[in-house]
Design goal:
five-stranded antiparallel beta sheet; C8orf32 fold; 28 strands; alpha+beta; 2 domains
Length: about 500
Amino acid sequence: MMPAKTNSFVSPIILFIMHAAVLSAAESSVGPWRILASRDTLDIYIQDRRVGSMIHSVGIDDDAGVIEKESRVVVDPPGSITGLDKLNIYEARRYDFTGALREAQQILKTPAGGTSWKLTKKNGWRLAITTGGRETLVNVDSVHENLAASRRIMTGIKNRTIDVGDVWHDTLFELISGTGNPVKTTCMEIPGAGNGFRYRFVDYDILTDKKLHWETDTAGNLLVQEIPPHFVARSKSDLDDADNNSRARSEGHSVDFAELTKIPMHRPPDKNETVALQLASSITLDSTVYSFYQKKDSLWLLRQLSEKCRDRGGKLSRELEKFTRPTIVLQSDHPKIHAVSDSLCAGVNSVCEKISKCTGHVFSHLEKRNTASFSNAIETLRSGFGDCSEHAVLCAALLRAQKIPARVVYGLYYGSSQKGYLYHAWVVVYNGGLLFADPAHGIFPAPGNRVPLMIDDTGRKMVLLMRVVDRVTVRYVGKDGTTTRLWGK
């Protein structure tokens, strides 16, 4: 059975990089640039099990007049961590001496391949995304990332002028989504004997609706970053603290990443019940999946899709036709994608049969393996392995090559052996009506009680998966309107 999508692990790592990046660079803006260069190394933990490390470094190039920041992340989980694979992330940002961002680059590498994002300004801001050997250029309206707020924080730390409740505002440019991300920072504690003489802050990240906790010593050295309840990064000096030593060095238990994000429910819905979502007040349902639900009071009631495919023919509308075109991750026009798709569907006239053949082919030919990647079809075809996202993007690309409308859905499905709802990815297709195809499980049509949370044909919403983790409750609504909640969060 395919485990939960591990992109929900990439998202917090991206947040660690973004927030630490500005903090470290800000330290360099307090005085003479060359004196205040910095280098921080932190180990990454999931539930006290070390899975990797991060290095943040800042250099000052006086000749070029820039602050250069680099972050490197290496994730190589031990065998006791299931549901994760190796991951390398490199990010570089350059700021001028006014503190304004001038360019940024991020490279994500996994055993399946690599993707890069590069933000530059020349006659306007442009974001170049390279994946599967192809580059796509995206115009960016504006970029407002600046180190001014971070400079005030670091000045306050060094001068001991910060007080509890002080607030700062900033904007970080998130490269994967290609959007500016407002961040609010609040000082929660100031140094004292009771807290190990540390400053403690909380960043509220509006894009992901998450809070990132971080701590420094009185010199401004970064000690801890944490996204509760599962993710924490610690410096060596923090690990040497006796209060944290036993907690952060625990090696006696295994961790299943899928279990950490599971929504527990001890049974699936019965035939007389409708699945319903209840969202935390701070988030809303993604607009791409509105059509799958009916809103009733605070609940989103899942509409039942047909579990039978019938060929109906007819010309596609302009709205549907655009879901047959290639995207940056669904490279349906690539010769190798076309060759596989045409081979599978040669001599087949039935659209239902074409969907079934593509779904079955992806299921039988891809090795089931977790990869915390920026999933795209051509790299998946080349590597021959992946988790549910890789299965979904390859299947959708094969279908689009046959001019069948297909989109990638991220959401939940019920895992009987896990007794709960797991994060998952599959495909929604149109053949006179909407149907689900689940290539990771080899099912078409797939049961309509899969629970969509967002549709993403470009990969740019990957970070937004963080918004819904731990903020969704699943309920079952009976025909009489009664609501059942069974162990749900």
